[in-house]
Here is the input.
Amino acid sequence: MPAPVTRFDFKTAVSDKRLVGLWRMLTGFRLAYLGAVVGVGVAAVLQTGNALLLRYLVDDVLGQGRFDHILLLIGLGFVALALGQGTLSFLSGALTARTSEGIARRLRNYLYDHIQRMSFTYHDHMETGELIQRATSDVDAVRRFFADQAINAGHIVLLFVINFVALWSLNARLALLSVVVVPLIMVVSVFFFKKVMKAYEAFQEQEAKLSTTLQENLTGVRVVKAFARQAYEQEKFEQDNWEQYQRGRRLLTFHSLFWPSSDILCSFQMVGAFLAGALMAINGTISVGTYLAAVRMIVWLIWPMRNLGRLIVQMSTGMVSYMRVVKLIKEEREPLDAGIYRPSGNVRGEIVFRDVCFEYDNGDSAVLKGISFRGEPGQAVALLGSTGSGKTSLVNLLPRFYEYTGGSLTLDGVELREYPRHYLRQQIGIVEQEPFLFSRTIRENITYGVGRDVSDEEVEAAARMAAIHDVVVSFPDGYNTLVGEKGITLSGGQKQRVAIARTLLKDPRILILDDATSSVDTETEGEIREALERLMEGRTTFIIAHRIQSVMNADLILVLDQGRIVQRGTHDELMAQEGIYRRIYDMQARIEDELEQELTEHASKVWEIPETWEEIWEDETKEEELAYVAL
Ligand SMILES: Nc1ncnc2c1ncn2[C@@H]1O[C@H](COP(=O)(O)OP(=O)(O)OP(=O)(O)O)[C@@H](O)[C@H]1O
Ligand SMILES: [Mg+2]
Here is the structure.
């Protein structure tokens, strides 16, 4: 059965006043929750009715020596009261569950959606563990607030009021004597409420830190192993865990300090009230039946007092979690649809950069400086440059993952800022530098983001183009093979090719290939390159690559260095110039020549083929060699 849809905009429900916010959160469940409160209220009345019936039995029936049919009626009365109480408890329990679980489900759905709509910048800053903590543990604390604390607080207040009124009607002095410690208990509770709130907040923060560490370690478990850093990681974790232990202990210590203090107060109160009642019964101020009923009422008066204190203290956790969730809800989403320009069809793909500058939010220096170039529709623009020179940052501006901070960037003559992000992302296909595949089937991964029904033939065609079809059919389950933790692990190159197939199927007008063939061998790269070249026809394409061969056919080659374009032109033009480009070319050609020679000389030997020129580029010691090559 598909899950029924829930839509509730929590953004409209948040409030800095915690109780107001929590009340608003109840929207749609208020009737059910009210029913639950009424249920516990009536159950409390029945409970007091029970005590009053007892008083009647002792004073007016047994005391008068009446042993007629009234006894049977009273017996039935007790049974009816018990049944009524049981039924009401069950009903209010069911209604509470419906409310609290319903709110938690709605909140989790909202947060999940909310988190995936945050901007790239937000995710750059926010720790994953913190987000997980808020979407799970904090939601659960809010759920407990409704499931347990709020309803019980309501129940307790009702019990208290009803029993107090009933006791008052029996004997006002006794009633007053039974609640003298209430103000004291309230003061103690509020004191601990504040303490626990602080301690819990610290505890949740640390727990989020621990989940981040754990999550990061699980993701990076291979790095940890490869660098044999288990001991270091263990120590780091133990340190964080020790902090968690201390904060947890502090939290529980407050709880355990609160219990005895409220218990002692309540016990004194109970004994005192019993004693006062007994004295009143002995000197004849109240009847024996009244005394028996009063004892019950006193118990039901003090029990709530004791528990209200506990609940108030526990509520602090719900409040803290509520505020943590609110903080997340208040974060602005990435406005996907915002944009004053509403194009009707597809873009042509003319991209013009004019003096574009860009820096990351947290960055202290500009990552891109004065970038200017023009990409005509259907042209291929290649970006070349050492690691960290800003290639990925440059292409990330196109789908508006990040906003450029200076200059002008137009697509088909319209400033990029005026396009809705959603539209841009439909028009642009990216094969990312480190493609991510979901733990779903290969087919699902390839069809991800197409947004329509796709035939098997189409999927296969895309896979063939990306040179991954043969690999996929070699798996027992073919396209239904699960990828990832529960299924097979694909190699880096295979992942890249699945990502290429995914982008091919999307059929975008603008294509970005961020080092899309970095993890495939030269032979496969050749295969893919042919496919990509066919694919690039008619689309504006940005190719980032480290091998000259991958970029030499581009219409425009830009060489980037530290965020600036240092060389531009076609392959032939760049070859005719002195500069980085020709040096790279010569070096790669030389390496390949040498390699070929070596391979023919030692045909039987297996050589590790240097994949990129960047290692050599960066290596200072090769400077002289480079100079030599450049000559
Ligand atoms: N999300 C980010 N937040 C802050 N700074 C970033 C972010 N991503 C990259 N940078 C910085 O921006 C600079 C350019 O990075 P970028 O990823 O664009 O380089 P690149 O040319 O794609 O390198 P590579 O060839 O290694 O992929 C680097 O100095 C990097 O530290
Ligand atoms: Mg990059």
In short: The chain has 22 helices and ten strands. The mean pLDDT is 86. The chain has three domains: 10-330, 351-577, 587-630. The two ends are 72 Å apart (CA to CA).
